[in-house]
Amino acid sequence: MSIGNALANRSFCVGLIVTSLIALVALVSFVWTPYPVGALDIAGKLKPPSAAHWLGTDHFGRDILSMIMVGSRNSIAVASVSVAIGAGIGVPLGLWGAATGGFVDEVLMRLNDLVFAFPALLSAVMITAVFGPGAINAIIAIGIFNVPVFARVARAAALSLWSREFVIAAGAIGKSPARITRDHILPNLASLLIVQATIQFSLGILAEAGLSYVGLGSQPPMPSWGRMLFEAQTMIGLAPHIALFPGLAIVITVLGFNLLGDGLRDVLDPKFQ
């Protein structure tokens, strides 16, 4: 990837700036927030944005900016681990199916179809019915949903590479399918998988917010953007800012990662040069 081409791509630059700012906010929240996220001030509840509370306060008098800052690290952590689970399991399965073919490939793809038929929300409902709600179970549900996505992407791209001359030549000199996959297939898929990871990351942010909204994600006292929206829905007429700012945080974060993914696709794919 040329640094010059990357900096000339508007989507990449905007996406990188937005995602870097979100990551910076999450890191800063570990050492500083304007107010403790659990500090209640009933007398100061539902206050609009002001010099004391830049984004206002919620129905318990908690500082919304502090909650959004801490909620950002929760959303990023859930999305990051779930994408790692999906890629860590899905990519090897897809590459295995493409390299083996036949019965093994067919079984792997049918299993992928079975898992893909259950959305992350439905998987979370089933998991929490057994183990209870929580961030860990949300990560597992979203990660399971990501597995067939990465498996399909890796398999489709790998199949197109197995018919290329340099792969056929590698097989002709005696390289095993596993070694060909490691030395030739996977390196040529890296850019595609990076782009897919950014897309799944943004979807992971949305999925985490959705699960928290229905009470299946992170549990109190850990702030969550989705639960902030749920708690704000009955008071949106009195204090619209308590729903506006968490919603904007979700929109900006998802938009930033989508722009970053589009930019990476344009920069890494020779067809877009």
TrEMBL record:
Pfam family membership, one: BPD_transp_1
UniProt keyword list: Cell membrane, Membrane, Transmembrane, Transmembrane helix, Transport
Record-annotated ABC transmembrane type-1 domain positions: 72-261
Name of the molecule in the record: Peptide/nickel transport system permease protein
UniProt-listed GO biological process terms: transmembrane transport
PROSITE patterns recorded: ABC_TM1
InterPro entries linked to this entry: BP-dependent_transpt_permease, MetI-like, MetI-like_sf
UniProt cross-references to CDD domains, sorted A to Z: TM_PBP2
Protein topology in the membrane: Multi-pass membrane protein
Main location group: membrane
Gene source species: Phyllobacterium trifolii
Record field: transmembrane: 12-32, 76-99, 111-129, 135-154, 189-216, 236-261
Record-stated family: Belongs to the binding-protein-dependent transport system permease family.
SUPFAM superfamilies named in the record: MetI-like
